[in-house]
Amino acid sequence: MSELYRDASRPVEERVEHLLSLMTPQEKSTQLGSLWVYEVLEKSTFSRSKAEARMKDGIGQITRIGGASSLDPVDGAEVANEIQRYLVNETRLGIPALVHEESCSGYMAKGATLFPQTIGVASTWNPDLTEKMGEVIRTQMKSVGAHQALAPLLDVTRDARWGRVEETFGEDPYLVTQMGLSYVRGLQTADVRDGVIATGKHFVGYGVSEGGMNWAPPHIPERELRDVFLQPFEAVVRKGKLGSIMPGYHELDGVPCHASTSLLTDVLRKEWGFDGIVVSDYFAVDMLHSYHHLADDKGQAARMALQTGVDVELPSIDCYGAALVELMERGLIDMELVDAAVRRVLTAKFRMGLFEHPYVDESQVALVFDNQEQRALARTIAQQSIVLLKNEGNMLPLQKDVGTIAVIGPNAHSVRHLLGDYAYPCHIETLQDMTNTFNTAVPEKIELDLNFVAMRTVLEAIRDKVSPETRVVFAQGTQTLTGSQAGIDEAVAVAKAADVTILVVGDKAGLIDGCSSGESLDRASLDLPGLQEELVRAVHATGTPVVAVLANGRPLSINWLNDYVPAILEAWLPGEEGAAAIADVLFGDYNPGGRLPMSVPRSVGQVPVYYNHKPSGGRSHWKGDYVEMSAKPLYPFGYGLSYTEFAYSNLVVSDAPAPVDGRVTIQVDVTNTGAVAGEEVVQLYVHDPYASVTRPVKELKGFRRVALAAGETRTVTFVLPISSLGFHNVDLNYVVEPGVFEVMVGSSSEDIRLTSSFEVTGEPTLIKDREYTTEAF
Q: How many CB atoms lie within 10 A of CB 343?
């Protein structure tokens, strides 16, 4: 009987209940916590004595074996096996640990693939590529013994000032939903035993905070919360079978998300049927006491979080440790609250087959890191993420035999500046600063080096691309946030001697001082940071033709740049193959087809600016524009140019009128009318002109990225489920109402090429099981 929970032939529920019945209060509390990997290491080697001190009663999770150390993948797998061996063989119940890691732009570990940052992935408008990226992350994580990825971010983001914009899929709930679903499919697979647990975060509304400031409260009405910000989470829970949720640091209307029973119990578990684990954001349980001042002490914070439904405290045992055990021993907490959380943690471990397969094969690890297929995928995603914002006079693509090219800017000859804040080389820097920020000291004996996969800079990629006769010269000009007139003068001298100048400007992403984008690096200005604007103006004054390449983490207000630069590429933070992708586009080996996942404001004073506003929004009534400028964004959501042109024709809407439980088929012909092959992102928008509550002026309801040869025509078909046209009515019930719906098909939210309409018949209908995806082919 004592071994029943080890019997894999038994139902998971039976194994969980048996194991739970054997556990002491101390053993239960340890399953609800985690430990940083360095807490059980001695000079990057597993320490049995530290393990005895920190996890003799077991542990729920291990925090970042790869992401919080300088271990290479093979050594990381060895440490993972040693930790599991200790837990299985040396603790009373032998419960293995879940190992969690970050995976925003790839598995965040030394030697792992450095994909483009998420905002760039969103710019591909290609869910298939997103799924393939998730598959690589899953393969690499599983090989080293990791089980849970703290991604994807499902935050709908409308404020470009916020430092974490770069980690998101942008401003639109439909685009965020589709990319999120694809990412989770790639990570978890159909059977989570073959995958890793995906974690949707930050639940919910994190990306629209006061002043764009991190952890600050957003102000979101209940209907908007449900129709916009909850939608991606709901879809990925209901349809994607998401394994984990992480609440946000912030509060909603006075209630921190980690203490919101309404969110974590009523909506997530009761309404949506979520049966996975809720993990805290790092240090957020204690923040109910120390930051939000809601709980009197750590014990009350623990009780509050458990009552709400937070199952696991990350990144290390704190409130769910001694403070929780004391509550249990004194009878000051309902044991069923604790048991419910432990039950969900154990269920996750049994579902993953962790008891049967706690170890990994160290000999196979090297095969799935930094191979040609992974690099090829990283390059493809980087290529497809690049958005051509401006190409006056068809300045691009450049000829490869240009006489002299000046490459200038802080991001021109730095691989570090091509990476997002949660890439390993950027994020590992923060561990050295954690004593000051979170009072969590990293032992000095842990060596945190910044060695990572091989990368080239944009300068090097350009030199590799051009003819042997072309002279390529370089000047940094300025750093991201600091610089001098002397550096600008040097850049001017270099530009004067060139036939064309390529300016590579933008951000340095990270979490430490000296960075301009990333977590907690919020901005009051959306101009180029530091002296970069001065650099651009000075180079322009030389009279040399200039191409600007933006390597940045958020939309920048670059209205002024249009007066100085005839060609602009938005490359975001394009990852390990980003430099090669940029060179491919600059010289015509790849025709850019990326589209903006966020509107680009003319000025920071426009923020928030987004396309799917209500009829009374988007302009100042009655004049329309601001006194100083247009109320329209500089570049709208969905925008992007190409080296060719596309024509739309023959819009046909069929299967209408449709009942509320039906579908409508929408077809359009798209023709490449130019002389070169290219890719177009065909976008379907719908408008409900009259409803019982106000509705957005347009909503993205489908898209398809298509590749067309010169002169080729292709019919793109959308199968639109009527249930996706609903909204939350005056009673906050999700309904579809009958009526006439307007159809808009085009190349961006503003560049609508063709319009039509269809009718939905019947009565207003409460929808219990709606569809979230429009099939497109």
A: 19
Q: Residue 452: name the closest of 113, 163, 36, 62 by CA.
A: 113
Residue 134: other Cβ atoms inside 10 A: 26
Instruction: Check residue 427 and give its pLDDT.
Output: 83
Residue 524 CB neighbour total at 10 angstroms: 9
- Contact between 348 and 276 under an 8 Å Cβ cutoff? The reply is yes
> According to CATH, what is the number of the domain 372-606?
3.40.50.1700
**Which amino acid is it at 410?**
P
Burial of residue 752 (CB within 10 Å: 0-12, 13-18, 19+) is middle
Q: Which residue numbers in the chain have pLDDT < 50?
A: 1, 435-436, 444-446
Contacting residues for 304 by C-beta, under 8 A, at least 6 apart: 258, 259, 288, 294, 295
pTM of the model: 0.97
Active site residues: 281
CA–CA gap between residue 70 and residue 449 (Å, rounded): 6
Q: How far is CA 678 from each of CA 35, 127, 399, 591, 712, rounded to the nearest angstrom?
A: 49, 18, 18, 6, 10
Domain 646-776: what homologous superfamily? Answer: Immunoglobulins (2.60.40.10)
The 3-state DSSP class for residue 491 equals: helix
Q: What angle do CA 374, 119, 593 make, to 5 degrees?
A: 75
Q: Is 48 helix (H, G, I), strand (E, B) or coil?
A: helix
* Tokens found for residue 212: 């764009």
Pairing of strands 699-708, 678-687: antiparallel
Write the single-letter amino acid at 334: D
What is the percent of the chain where pLDDT is above 90? 95
The alpha carbon of residue 717 and the mean position of all alpha carbons in its chain are separated, in whole angstroms, by 28
Report the first-to-last Cα separation within the chain, whole angstroms. 55
Q: Where are the domains of the chain?
A: 372-606, 646-776
Strands 500-506 and 404-408: parallel
What pLDDT score does 442 carry?
Answer: 59
Q: What DSSP line would sit under 76-115, residue for residue?
A: HHHHHHHHHHHHHHHSSS-PPPEEEE--BTB--STTS--P
In the chain, the amino acid numbered 365 is V
Cβ contacts of 646 within 8 Å, gap of 6 or more: 670, 671, 672, 673, 674, 678, 680, 708, 747
Q: What are the Cα distances from residue 689, in Å, to 182, 221, 592, 613, 758?
A: 31, 21, 35, 13, 12
